[in-house]
Specification:
The complex is a heterodimer of chains A (402) and B (346). Chain A has 402 residues and is an all-alpha fold. Helix content of chain A is 65%, strand content 3%. Chain A contains 16 helices and 6 strands. In chain B, the strands form 2 sheets. Chain B has a two-stranded antiparallel ribbon. A two-stranded antiparallel sheet of chain B has the order 2-3. Chain B is globular and about 60 Å long. The chains are: A mainly alpha (402), B mainly alpha (346).
């Protein structure tokens, strides 16, 4: 206990430690609070948080690519799609109607890692020839790749169900004790309880455990020799190469690790929704995750996570709920006429609010980069290098400046 | 064995770098795949495809010019450029009504007199928007790490798309079909629509005007100098900020004109059109050699042709995949493009 207190005291001024502690406490309390304030009907809210967890995982992964190694990946949704489709294909009846004529049902925990490896492989295959390119070309290549992958999945309808995607994917199977005190049956050691849409708390617990594991792994990576090499490349690639960093391999590792996180998240996402469809993996997803990372703070893991949580709830909870609330607000302050649609194309104020999504992405990306490039919760090293104005060299003595 | 050949020829086989060789093999495979299908459909069909390809290529070329000029001068991929193109089509819609142009009712000289001010106003408005974007989102970050302006460019693209989405919603928007629908026979049973001729004509006029401007005018000279070496140009007394703003201005004016032409030719728009068209046009700019103005025009033409051939002889569902694959292949195997020169990273 004393040791715990000492730890708390030592870290009480470390914003990252505070952020981790706050997120951990929030994660533990969230299901109970959600159930409490909705009077026991909080399953939808908990399920929403499980989806938010998927995006937090994506943000952590993209943070490795963009934040640590400084590679702008605009096709991050592609690896998400690869993970989800891989899981969907090897854990559903889909392949029974393919030329293979045999359905494969790989257990959830193995399939999750198959998704991870396939995505990492795709990342390495894309990265190997393209990581030689300069930064902005790499952005375009990944953007193109992000457009190609969902279309290929849609077009290969023999294997992937085409436009309709793959449905009835196997739900994950987990030992029941993972459901914990929340599931209502705390110590039933019934193994292989299936997580279904009736038990969203289970998904929530699984994703929280996965996130904790990934955070520990990525944190260790950041502090390792590899992490320092990433940062060296981000600061100055030529100097890094000159000091003996194998830049291509190190960048490839960042790319593949980012891709594997995305694939992992995709596999979980597929399992949770039990449906995958090529429309779920559009460019919007890539830009959402990028906005999360930029908002929270590039190069800082808890920053990216907090950015992910904030933006997810704004986009998927606040915005979808907003139209009705805004409409009733305008009604009550006497501006009800704004709610009426008119034939010139005005769809009513509520609908307009619902359409704000793309402006929000844009404003986050532009305003953060202009006014606070280090993000909401910056990493200390990153803040120093991104606030570039102060370090423009040694100024001439006052009297010489005219 | 291969290693020995390589070491003897300095990494080259038959005088080609290994990467170029792979690229050529891919190209050859594609041609072998398409030829029997082309032969199947006959010459008349082929001629029709080529005409469409040229018309589409003219539109891509107009957009690609903006990408290539901006990249040439500030080395930034202006992601918002494709959306400025869409903005051109969106702005011109109410203007058409204001100048009394109505579908099926405006003909001949009245149509021409109406369209010219619509073109000019739209081009000017798009240009001002683009200059404002440069001022707000790119100029303050000119000395920042490269990642920063790229991210704001993505952000500006999203803001423009969001604004048009707010304005017109998620629906397909009908654009009035004003141009004459005549078909001009050119012999052998092949016809060219008058629309295509007009569109290609307008595009050629704009491209010629642009190259005259860049090669002959003082401002054009300043632009070329700034593209070559910004610091040296500044030391020679060139106002860098004004020159860069001019580049954005001209690029956006061309894109705005492209937007109107697209609307007139295809008749439907969505708020997110600029994303795909922008990517195609960027592919065209890279294909021709980024920073190279004739290259962008050529690249636009080739990409237009490529997409029409793919639509006609492969499958429309695969066209986007093929174009983006082409983009990746060009960037990997020949990042300097067809007409560009290999420039070391600055």
């Amino acid at each position: 206990m004393n040791r715990l207190l000492a730890l708390a005291r030592a870290n009480s001024r470390n914003p990252n430690a505070i952020a981790y502690a706050a997120m951990l406490i929030a994660a533990l309390l969230y299901p109970e609070v959600a159930q409490f304030i909705t009077g026991g009907n909080g399953d939808a809210l908990v399920g929403l948080a499980a989806d938010a967890g998927v995006f937090v995982l994506l943000a952590i992964g993209l943070n490795v690519v963009v934040g640590f190694a400084g590679l702008l990946d605009l096709g991050y949704a592609a690896f998400f799609a690869i993970g989800a489709y891989t899981y969907a294909m090897i854990a559903s009846n889909e392949l029974a109607t393919s030329p293979l004529h045999h359905a494969i049902h790989v257990p959830f925990w193995i399939a999750l890692f198959v998704g991870l490896f396939v995505a990492a492989l795709a990342g390495a295959l894309l990265g190997a020839p393209t990581l030689r390119l300069r930064g902005d070309y790499l952005a375009i290549v990944t953007l193109g790749f992000g457009e190609i992958v969902p279309r290929v999945y849609r077009n290969l309808n023999v294997w992937t169900g085409g436009v309709f995607g793959i449905s009835a994917i196997d739900p994950p199977t987990v030992p029941r004790w993972l459901g914990g005190p929340w599931s209502g049956d705390p110590f039933g050691f019934l193994t292989d309880l299936q997580l279904t849409s009736a038990n969203l708390t289970g998904f929530y617990v699984v994703i929280v455990i996965i996130i904790i594991g990934v955070v520990i792994l990525v944190n260790n990576l950041q502090r390792s020799r590899l992490g320092r090499a990433w940062m060296a490349i981000r600061e100055d690639e030529t100097a890094a190469a000159a000091t003996g960093v194998n830049t291509v391999n190190i960048k490839l590792l960042a790319f593949a690790i980012g891709a594997s996180t995305s694939g992992f998240a995709g596999a979980f996402y597929g399992a949770k929704l039990s449906v995958v469809n090529s429309d779920q993996f559009s460019f919007t997803i890539s830009i959402t995750v990028l906005s999360m990372v930029v908002l929270g703070g590039m190069g800082n893991i808890p920053g990216a996570m907090i950015g992910g949580i904030l933006l997810y709830f704004i986009l998927y909870k606040f915005l979808p709920d907003a139209p009705n609330q805004v409409a009733s607000l305008f009604q009550s302050v006497g501006l009800g006429w704004l709610n009426n649609t008119n034939p010139n194309g005005w769809p009513g104020i509520g609908e307009e609010v619902n359409r704000l999504k793309f402006i929000i992405f844009g404003l986050i990306l532009v305003l953060i980069m202009l006014y606070r490039p280090q993000g909401l919760l910056p990493s200390r090293a990153r803040r120093l290098e991104l606030t570039h104005d102060e370090v423009t060299g040694i100024a001439a003595p006052r009297e010489l400046q005219t | 064995m291969l290693e020995r050949i390589r070491s003897a020829t300095g990494g080259r086989i038959l005088g080609l770098a290994p990467l170029d060789l792979i690229g050529l093999l891919v190209l050859a495979a594609a041609i072998i795949f398409v030829i029997p299908r082309v032969a199947d459909r006959g010459a008349g069909y082929l001629a029709q495809v080529i005409v469409f390809g040229i018309a589409l290529g003219a539109i891509y070329a107009l957009v690609a010019l903006g990408y290539t000029m901006v990249y040439g001068i500030v080395e930034l991929i202006n992601f918002a450029h494709g959306d400025v193109f869409t903005l051109g089509a969106f702005i011109s819609l109410p203007l058409l009504g204001a100048f009394g142009l109505v579908e099926d009712k405006s003909h001949g000289i009245g149509l021409l007199l109406g369209l010219i001010p619509v073109f000019l106003i739209t081009m000017a408005l798009c240009a001002l928007v683009n200059v404002a974007i440069e001022r707000v989102a790119y100029r303050p970050l000119r000395n920042a790490p490269r990642l920063a302006p790229l991210i704001t460019a993505i952000g500006m693209s999203s803001i423009l798309e969001g604004a048009m989405f707010l304005w017109r919603g998620p629906f397909n928007i009908h654009y009035p079909d004003l141009l004459p629908a005549n078909q001009i026979p050119i012999g052998g049973g092949v016809t060219i629509s008058a629309k295509s001729v007009i569109i290609v004509g307008v595009a050629i006029i704009l491209v010629l005007a642009l190259s005259l401007f860049i090669n002959r005018s003082t401002l054009g000279k300043a632009m070329r100098a700034t593209a070559q070496d910004r610091d040296a140009a500044q030391l020679m007394g060139i106002n860098i900020n004004a020159t860069i703003a001019t580049t954005f201005f001209i690029g956006a004016a061309l894109a705005g004109a492209g937007g109107i032409i697209y609307g007139l030719y295809f008749g439907t728009l969505t708020a997110f059109l600029g994303f795909t068209v922008g990517l195609y046009a960027f592919t065209a700019a890279v294909f021709g050699g980024i920073g190279n103005i004739p290259g962008a025009a050529l690249g636009g033409l080739l990409i237009g042709m490529f997409s029409q051939f793919s639509d006609a002889y492969v499958d429309t569902a695969w066209t986007q995949v093929l174009i983006f694959a082409l983009l990746i292949l060009v960037l990997v195997f020949r990042p300097s493009g067809l007409l560009g020169m290999r420039v070391p990273e600055k």
